[in-house]
Amino acid sequence: xxxDDGFAAPHVTISGAHIAEALAAAxxxxxxxxxxxxxxxxxxxxxxxxxxxxxxxxxxxxxxxxANRLWDLLHRQLRPFQxxxxxxxxxxxxxxxxxxxAWDGTDAGLPAGWDDQFERTAADLQAGSAVxxxxxxxxxxxxxxxxxxxxxLMVEAFRVHARLRGHRALIACVRPTWKERYPLASIQAYAxxxxxxxxxxxxxxxxxxxxxxxxxxxxxxxxxxxxxxADWERWAGMAFPATGEYxxxxxxxxxxxxxxxxxxxxxxxxVWMVHALDR
Length: 279
What we know:
The protein is an alpha+beta fold. It has helices spanning 16-25, 46-54, 65-70, 72-76, 114-127, 150-164, 187-190, 203-210, 229-236, and strands at residues 35-38, 83-86, 92-101, 133-141, 169-174, 214-227, 244-246, 255-258, 263-276.
């Protein structure tokens, strides 16, 4: 799509104020005194954004080689797709990272997981391919503001942004909030769990579902994190005295340790959620 079609091309910045206006028109206003910005509008905010995002994740989640290799794309080529919600004091209270990609609209055509989604965005950028979906990468709410509805607000901001660009969908490879409480359960089974009221059991899946997203398919190997035994002992803050499978704090699945090979392997399990958009 081009600007002549009435939609914004990938390199065009849609201002945070424009997205906020569209949010308000849809009945979802920002909290009083808050403002929404894209990173393209805040050239000095890169470090503050990274500091904000890094405050909530366990150490091992920073060791994904795909994220470490490609993350700079968000700061260099995809600044219009990084959204920051600032509080009355100008500090970041919530942020959302996203990246566009081409998707054929089928479940079979979804990326294999979070890593593959990022790889496909990078390939589309390099090839100059037309993109027609917005891929959510993460939403991080400041610890002191969690539980106040800002996560769903940022999902809605993604939806509005994608719609303004003429995309067919917002797709999200969701890391379920409570999966780390049940690391022995398969993500295939976990994705089907429901509360007594029929709503999804997991809070983050439930947020997306309540906004109209559907659960498309589980991704049991969404991210791959591999390191030496010493690496994993440092990342997890625990010892691995023997070869075997371990439950690691805040890991959503088991970590497999092979002391003979000096190798620890972890696959972060996610669930694909698809928000179809009326273009």
